[in-house]
Design goal:
This protein has 22 helices and 13 strands. The protein has 571 residues and is α/β, with parallel strands linked by helices. The strands form three sheets. Strands 2, 3, 4, 5 and 6 form a five-stranded parallel β-sheet that branches. The chain is globular, with a radius of gyration of 35 Å. One of its GO terms (biological process) is fucose metabolic process.
Length: 571
C-alpha cells in the first residue's frame, strides 16, 4: 500500500513538472504570442525546478508522505503567483448613502407643499379636536399627598446642603431628590444652592424661580426645610459653607448607601454637603421615599409669583387666540438652538459655514471634549439612529401630515433658534398662526426675565403644560418632566406627540413619496403616541415622566362625576 501511494504521488509530481514546461496560456486563458517569452518565464522556471526538487525529496522520506498534498498545493500557489496577470480596472460609482443619513427634508417639503396648500382649501375638521382617545371610565387620579404620613416629625439628625446644577428641570430633579434624601436621613434640608452652569449661564437663585415660602410650608409636615444654616452650625465651619465636607456621592446611589455612608457623617458633624447632586438617588426606592418625590414635584414646587403671573396671562392669551378650536392649541418644544445642534454633531445644509460655526460652539461650551483622541463624529449614523434634533421644517411637515391644518395655533417653546430667519421660515409658512414667548408677551413684560434662561424656560413650561397637544422633538429633562406633569394633570394621559425619529428620517429622505402615503404614516405615528400616552412606570424608569402608579391611583367612576372626591379608588 505504501509503495503504491509513493508511486502515485511521484507520478503526480512528474505531471506537474511537465505541465510547467509546456504551459502555453496566460492566467486569463489567452494564447501567448509565438516567439515572445513572457517576462516571468525565468522566475517561473526557477520556481518549477524548486518545487520538483522539493517534492522528490519528500517522496524519498516516507515519514513525510502525509505532508505531500499540503506541499503540492503550496507549490501550485507559488507557481500561480509567479505568473503575470492582466489587471482590469473597474470604475465603481460611490455607494449610495444609507436611507435617512442625509438631511434632504427641504426637497421633500418642496414636493409636498402644493398638496398641503390643496388641503388648506378643504373643510375637513382640525385633528386637534379629536387627537386623543381618552377613556373617561377608568382614569388615574393624583394621590401624592395621600401616600405620606401626617405624624409629627422627629428631631432632625442634622442639615443637608445640596448644589443643583444644570437648567430649569435638572434643578427641579435635584430639588425633588433632595427632599427624598432628607426624608430618608431625617435631615433638615437647606434651600438648595443653584450652580452657575457654563451652558445655561443663569445666575438665578431658588427664590427667583420657585415660590420659596410655599415650598417650605407645603413640606412642613413631611420634611424639615430651612432657608439657611443656623448661625451656630455655620460658625463651626468658619462661617463658610464650602468648609463643610463635600461627600462625593455616586450617581443613582441606593437608599442603603445613604444610610451606611452619609448618615454617620451627618450625625457626627451635624451638616453635610453633596455637590453636585444631579441624579444622585436611584429611581427605585421604597414607597415612602417615592411619595416624597411625588409630593415635592407635583405639589410643593410651584413657580415664583412674577413667573406665575405672566405665565397665566400668556396662557389666557393663547386660549383667546384659539377660540375657533375651542381654546385648544399645540405647543412644540423645539430643540434647535445653536448649542443643541453643536452638541448633537449632526450636519444639516449649511456647508462649510455651518461646520465652522458648530466647531466654535462646541469649543466654547465643551472645551476639548469633541477633539479628544479616538473620538469619532459620525453625523449620518446619529441621524439614522434618531439622535439628531428635528428642524423646524421637519416638525412642520410632520404636523401637517398628521392633520393639523394651517389654522392651528402653534406655540413654540425654545431658546434662540440657530439661524432663525432661515430655519423658521418654512414652519411659519405651514403654520401662519405661530407664536413664541417673544410674540405673545410684550418686551416690557419680559424685561425682568432677560438674561435669565431658566426663568424664561419656566414661562415656556407653563404654556406647554396647558396645551391640548405637546410635541417633543428631542430628549432632555424639559419634555420628560412635562410629560409626567401632563399625565398628572390630565387623568394619566400625557397628550404628547413623541416622534419616532428613526422612521421619520427615512420618510423625509424619500422626496418622491406620495402625499396620501405620507399622511397615513404620520397618522399612524400620532395614533402610536396616543396609545403610549397612558404608559405606567416600569422598573428603573423615572416617576417624573411616569407618575403612575407611584403618584396616582386608578379612578373607577367617570371623569366628571365626583371628580373632587376620593371615593371608589383602586389603591
Amino acid at each position: 500500500m505504501k509503495i503504491k501511494l509513493n508511486s502515485t504521488l511521484f507520478d503526480l509530481s512528474n505531471r506537474f513538472w511537465i505541465s510547467i514546461q509546456m504551459h502555453g496560456y496566460t492566467r486569463l486563458g489567452r494564447p501567448k504570442t509565438a516567439g515572445v517569452a513572457p517576462s516571468s518565464s525565468s522566475s517561473s522556471s526557477s520556481w518549477s525546478k524548486f518545487v520538483f526538487l522539493l517534492m522528490s525529496a519528500i517522496f524519498r522520506r516516507r515519514g513525510l508522505l502525509l505532508f505531500a498534498p499540503l506541499l503540492y498545493i503550496s507549490g501550485m500557489l507559488l507557481y500561480m503567483g509567479s505568473l503575470s496577470f492582466d489587471v482590469v480596472l473597474v470604475h465603481k460609482h460611490p455607494p449610495r448613502p444609507h436611507p435617512g443619513s442625509l438631511y434632504t427634508s427641504p426637497q421633500l417639503f418642496h414636493n409636498l407643499w402644493p398638496f398641503m396648500e390643496a388641503d388648506n382649501a378643504t373643510s375637513s375638521p382640525n385633528i386637534l379636536m379629536k387627537a386623543w382617545s381618552l377613556n373617561e371610565d377608568r382614569q388615574w387620579k393624583p394621590c401624592a399627598n395621600k401616600t405620606l404620613s401626617q405624624i409629627e416629625l422627629p428631631k432632625s439628625n442634622g442639615y443637608l446642603i445640596i448644589e443643583a446644577n444644570g437648567g430649569l428641570n435638572q434643578q427641579r430633579l435635584s430639588i425633588c431628590d433632595a427632599v427624598a434624601v432628607a426624608g430618608l436621613l431625617n435631615a433638615t434640608l437647606v434651600i438648595p444652592i443653584f450652580h452657575l452652569n457654563s451652558v445655561w449661564r443663569d445666575s438665578s437663585h431658588f427664590g427667583d424661580i420657585f415660590d420659596e415660602n410655599f415650598f417650605i410650608q407645603s413640606l412642613e409636615k413631611h420634611v424639615h426645610v430651612v432657608r439657611e444654616l443656623p448661625v451656630d452650625i455655620l460658625e463651626r465651619f468658619g462661617n463658610n459653607v464650602s468648609n463643610i465636607v463635600n461627600l462625593r456621592v455616586k450617581a443613582w446611589s441606593s437608599p442603603s448607601y445613604y444610610i451606611k455612608k452619609v448618615l454617620p457623617h451627618l450625625l457626627e458633624m451635624r451638616a453635610v454637603r453633596i455637590a453636585p447632586f444631579s441624579n444622585r438617588l436611584a429611581p427605585s426606592v421604597p414607597s415612602k421615599i417615592q411619595g416624597l418625590r411625588c409630593f415635592a414635584n407635583y405639589e410643593a414646587l410651584r413657580f415664583s409669583e412674577p413667573i406665575r403671573t405672566l405665565a397665566e396671562t400668556m396662557v389666557d392669551r393663547m386660549i383667546k387666540h384659539s377660540s375657533q378650536s375651542g381654546g385648544k392649541y399645540v405647543s412644540v418644544h423645539l430643540r434647535f438652538e445653536e448649542d443643541m445642534v453643536a452638541f448633537s454633531c449632526c450636519v444639516y445644509d449649511g456647508g462649510a459655514e455651518e461646520k465652522r460655526e458648530m466647531d466654535i460652539a462646541r469649543e466654547r461650551s465643551w472645551r476639548g471634549k469633541f477633539r479628544r483622541k479616538h473620538r469619532m463624529i459620525k453625523p449620518g449614523v446619529h441621524r439614522v439612529e434618531g439622535r439628531c434634533p428635528l428642524t423646524p421644517l421637519e416638525v412642520g411637515i410632520m404636523l401637517r401630515g398628521m392633520g393639523f391644518d394651517n389654522t392651528t395655533l402653534v406655540y413654540v417653546a425654545a431658546g434662540k433658534i440657530y439661524k432663525e430667519q432661515k430655519y423658521m421660515a418654512p414652519l411659519k409658512q405651514m403654520f401662519p398662526r405661530l407664536l413664541t414667548k417673544y410674540t405673545l408677551a410684550t418686551p416690557e413684560e419680559l424685561a425682568q426675565f432677560k438674561r435669565h434662561s431658566s426663568r424664561l424656560a419656566a414661562l415656556d413650561y407653563t404654556i406647554c403644560l396647558h396645551s391640548e397637544a405637546f410635541v417633543t422633538t428631542q430628549g432632555g429633562n424639559f419634555p420628560h418632566f412635562l410629560m409626567g406633569h401632563r399625565r398628572y394633570m390630565y387623568g394619566g394621559h400625557a397628550k404628547t406627540i413623541k416622534p419616532e425619529k428613526r422612521k421619520l428620517v427615512v420618510l423625509f429622505d424619500n422626496s418622491d413619496v406620495r402625499w396620501e402615503v405620507f399622511k397615513q404614516q404620520m397618522k399612524d405615528m400620532l395614533n402610536h403616541s396616543d396609545q403610549r400616552g397612558t404608559e405606567v412606570k416600569k422598573t428603573g424608569e423615572s416617576l417624573y415622566t411616569f407618575p403612575m402608579p407611584d403618584c396616582m391611583s386608578k379612578q373607577v367612576e367617570p371623569k366628571y362625576e365626583n371628580a373632587n372626591t376620593g371615593k371608589n379608588m383602586i389603591l
